[in-house]
Each structure stands twice: as C-alpha cells, then as structure tokens.
Amino acid sequence: MVGFDNEKYLQCQADSIKRRIELFSGKLYLEFGGKLILDMHAARVLPGYDPNVKIKLLQRLKDIIEIIYCIHAGDIEKGRIRGDFGLTYDIASLRTFDDLADYGFSISAVIVNRFGGQKSTQRFIDFLKSRQIRVYTQPEIQGYPADIEKIVSQEGYGRNPFIETEKPLVIVTGAGPGSGKMSTCLSQVYHHNLVGQKAGFAKFETFPIWNLPLNHPVNLAYEAATADLQDRNLIDPFHLNAYGVAAINYNRDIENFSIMKEIIDHIGDDASPFATYKSPTDMGVNMAREGIIDDTVVRKAAQQEIIRRYFRYKWEFIQGLERKETVSIVEKLLVQAGVKTTDRPTVLAARNAAETAKETGKGNRGIYCGAALELKDQRIILGMNSALLHAESAVILNALKKIAEIPDHIDLLPENIITNIAQLKKETLGSKSASLNVEEVLIALSMSAASNPASEYCLRKLKLLSGCDLHATHIIGRGDANGLRKLNLNLTTDALPTSHGFYY
Predict the structure, then answer these.
(1) What pLDDT does residue 399 have?
(2) Which fold, 344-496?
(3) CATH of domain 6-206+284-291
C-alpha cells in the first residue's frame, strides 16, 4: 500500500527552495537535515517514499547547487556510531562521499566544527586533504549561542574561515545532529555581509512535518526516532502568535529561536529578508505534507515505526548503549499513538515459534529461539533455531521458499554444505555454536545455486524481502544483524539472552 507520491512532493519541494533562493537575491545556504542518502526512517513512515528522494531533489537542482559537509570533531574522537550503517561517523562520512559521487555529486568542502587539535580528527583531516578535498576547521565559539555580541563579531564568526562557493544554492549537510550545519550557514552569511554581499539561510528537514497535527503518528514517530536526544514536538508559539496558525516544530528549534533570531538580525538589517522570519517554522522549506496521498496508510506505518523504535531502544538498553529514560519516552509515545508492542504482527508469532521450538525440543544447547517475518502480502512466516540454523536464518529460507512456491520437502541448502560450514566453525574457528547465521546462510545459498535450480531461483527472489518486518525473540548476533541489514529488513527483537553465560 502506498501513502506517498514522490513526484508530487519533488515538484512542490523544488519550487519551495527556488522561491527561497529568490527571496535572498540568489544566494542561499540551506541546512540539510536528516539522512541525505538512504533515509529509511522516512521510507518506513511514509510508504511509497523513495529512500533516495533527497538525491533526486538535488538532481533537479543540480545546475545551481554545491555541497558543504560538516562533522563534529568530538564525534570522530569518541568513535560515535551511526546506527543505520553500523559505522563510525568518520567512516560513514566517507561512505556518503562515495554514494554522492555515484549520483554525480562531489563535496565542495568539508568543515570540521569545534576542532581543538584532536589527534584522531587531525588524521581524518590529513586523509581528506590527501584525496584533494578542501577541509576547513572551525573552533568552538565560547559562549555560543547565548553571547550574541561575541558570536556576530570578529571574535566569533569572524574567526571562522570563509568558504568560497560559486553556486546560488549551497547545501550544508553533515554527519548527524550537532555537526555544526546551522553555525556554518550563519557564519557564511556573516562573511558575505561583511563585504556587502547578500546571502540567506533556510532549513530543510523532513520531520516533524509542520502542517500535520501535533499528535499525528508521523510526528510521534519522529519523536520516537530522536528519543535518545530527548527531542519533543511542540506547537510553534512564535508562529501561532505571528499568524494565528498552529505549526509543529521541535523543542530545540523553538527554545533556541529567540537567540537565533537575534543572531540573524545582527547579521542583517530591517530591510533584510531575514526580517520576514518570525518563527522557527518560517526558516523551513519543508513540503513533505504535499506528498502524502493516503493518510490512513501513513498513520498505520508510523505507528509500526514507533513500535520498532521501542524494541530498538530496549535492545540498546540491554546492551548498555542506551538509557532507561529513552525507553520510557517511547513507552509513553506508544500510549499517545494508541498502540501496543503486540500490534506488530510478527511479535506474537515469533514468541509462539519459540514456544513451539521448546515443546518440540528443536532448539540449540538449551536455548529456544523464534523468528517471524511478514511478507508484503501479509503472510507470516516462522523460523526456529536448531543445531544447524539460527532462527533468523531459518525464517529467511522459509520465506524464500514461500515466495518462490518451492515445496517444503525440497531443501535449498544441501546437508553437506551446512555440515562442512558447521564443522569449520566449530572445529577450526573455535565457535561454541556451529549453527549458521544469516550471513553464512546467504553465502551457502549462493554456493548451492551453482548446482540447485531451486536455490538459484530463490536467490533471485531475495530482493523481494526488502522492507519486510522481522521479529526475533532473542539477542541478534553480529552475523545475523549484518545480513538482515543488507537485506533491508525492518528488524525488532525481544533481546532475550542466547546463552546461559554473560558473553553472547
């Protein structure tokens, strides 16, 4: 079911950005929030949304844009991980550069914000420079953002380097929140004004969608996605006061708007288009609401995303990577959205599969795991763990057989292949468990495809699993997590232990 029209959205969004460029006499710095490529959150909550629609938007504007990329030095130094890619921010940034190149874009410059000579960050900078990428560093401005007089002076933005740009539209994107995108935009506008040049600033963020209701599931799903940052959606009081219209924005932009307004007023004057910014919502150019063509479909998808986020944060809490407070925030959002965790069809199905494994004794080393996958036609496929396969591996093979209409009695993986891999794992590699994870099963399936037509046929059906929901009862191992991520499955788990010990 489709709830979002990409073409309608692209046309409205491109027009909105062009109008904003004209407002600022042909030079606009556009803070580009969210994921530039593979925005899977948006694709999940807006069924039909192309995960790369932002790239398609940039392609429509290709003749007038260049791209500046920001990264926070502290994120590099701490080795911060991007949850969607499982990569550190520096490596994820390099991957983004390569992905952009595949679409015909190059990075005009990289800005390392709040740089104070950190060693790991300097190595990253040296590497980029060795690849002929322009790199600029910007120090932390003491008193930012409260000390307006200092910020808008030679001691503040004036200390930052001015990045030469040629195109009317400069996309300022970066590695996650806090990368310094807004500060970079405003610093650039400050430098333009010093020499009498006109330039403007605007924000592009898909969520929250400002002209959807506050408690619309899509906006609640955004709160769930940023619960670790404790972002909250609010009615923009500045917009309501100025126009009498309820618009939705998130707490940080609303809390900081008075300061941001002072900064931009100091940069410009009463005649500047900046004076038209009466609210944080005014700063945005978001037209995502125009792409929604079926609100019912979108609501259901967003409710499922809130449930998915709950399980993710719970898993991360068990791993010691997230706070209990984050889990509690999403529990409250579930109530606001009117859903329970068991409203995700795969949850109870996976738990029932684990019970069946226990009743039949088909687990492995006394652990009984279940997995359930929902196909696009809403059929639920089950999998259980065994001495040879993880539950996640079993459900993938069962789903492929169901999609390909392969009878149950036909094996996709010859016993000798599974046995040989199992022996290698246990006898040579020293693994306690010989059962195959998802990555290993996919390799085995490709080996089997060379001589087994059924395996070869199923291998070609793998892409049909993309976007399906999968729930598992137990902690997901690295080999399973990597394989499921590459298959683009929407994974949730109860995160029960897979061992009676402490190390999984």
Answers:
(1) 97
(2) Cytidine Deaminase; domain 2 (3.40.140)
(3) 3.10.630.10
